[in-house]
Amino acid sequence: MNVTLTSLHYIYLMFIIVLIIAMAKKKDISLLCILGIFILGLTATGSVVKSTMGVFNSFVYAAKELMPTIFVISIITAMSTAMIASGINDEIIAPFKGIIKNYWIAYWLIGLIMMVLSWFFWPSPAVVLVGALFLPIAKKAGLPAIGLAITMNLFGNGIALSSDYIIQAAPKLTADAAGIPVSKVITASIPLEIVMGVTTTIVAFYLLRSEIKKGKSFNENKIYEKTNNVMLISSKNIRRFFAILILVLFALDIVVMYIYKLQGSDATALIGGTAIFILSLISLVSYKEKSLEKITENLVSGLQFGFKIFGIVIPIAAFFYLGDLPFNDIFGKILPAGSNGIVNDLGVALSNSVPLNAVVSSITLTVVGAITGLDGSGFSGISLAGSIAKIFSTALGGGVDTLTALGQIAGIWVGGGTIIPWAVIPVAAICNVDAFELAKRNIKPVVIGLAVTTIVAMFII
């Protein structure tokens, strides 16, 4: 598998290194991303005008890609505000108060719920359901909002999305590229997923527990808290009716998703539409003659929150989207023929430059997977991981299934929403925590997990 690297590849790589250093120093990187987009455009087109236009068009592309997530987070925020003001939220969380008694139980139980839902429907809609319902419970049990975001990330965007045992979109992509049955990738991934999942979640919990025991102060979520003790719906029976109705409606959504095999954006749209109707019903009962104005007011407030959270990330997402094939859409067909995007090309170049044995092959697949995950999608480069695994296994005389599964795990854990700031936004937004802070806290557990998993893969091969 040959690939031609151009000046664009090296410039992009240089900016990635600069951005990583800047993030490590807790610096804002929006200006660096804008500069990176402009220089890439100038190098590609040789035109200041086209490069300037490309900066704006890359912003538009990023906003278009993020818009469904922005809207569903905004709508859920508006719905949650109405639920809390009316007192309905108190009725919903009441049954869990006797079960989730401390932050230990909150961390592990909510994480497992997130994992199971994400297996069936992927993390996007699961984030909305789990975050909106369990954030108040988790906080009352002593688990800070950042802790809830961490467990939702690791169990949902990490374990569930990288294994994808139910929907099987990820193993299908990697298996096809490697030329092996999907069942072989799934089987090979089980021991690796167990190692990766157990390692990351335990390390993350240990680090979080240390901070809690030291009495560290966390920036707590304020979105989902009442400003006073007055409940707009005074009747407990009516509040309980709405609590049951809301749970039934979301449960029906889950059933519909399963029956009609709704995934990703379709599943998120169903959740979002349901939330709009719930918001409307609650407002009609709670605000009565002022309901029309209050519905609009809550929606506007939710949208303000959504764009405030996502606005700072659009320049960053715009730069990293250029690492994939959208580069050609924004600046014209500039990339070399046969290119699969700048990031994937860099991954191929790395795989072509290393000697082959079980140790080096395992490390290379992990690194290649991680590199292709830098665009924040998690899925764009896993076919490449399968292709490289096939090449390496031919030289090694076997191990294609394990190498394929390893590349898939690395690519999705990095890019699918655990340590890339612009990919963790849905969880960060629903928990109202800083996306960069969440990504930073996930880095150590994920890196340790990948290291341990890679070592295990060496012995399996």
From TrEMBL:
Signal peptide (from-to): none
Positions of transmembrane segments: 6-24, 31-49, 69-88, 100-122, 190-208, 241-261, 267-287, 299-322, 354-374, 381-400, 412-431, 443-460
Record keywords, A-Z: Membrane, Transmembrane, Transmembrane helix
The keyword Transmembrane helix is assigned to this record: yes
Protein name, per record: Transporter
Source organism per UniProt: Clostridium acidisoli DSM 12555
Organism taxonomic ancestry: Bacteria, Bacillati, Bacillota, Clostridia, Eubacteriales
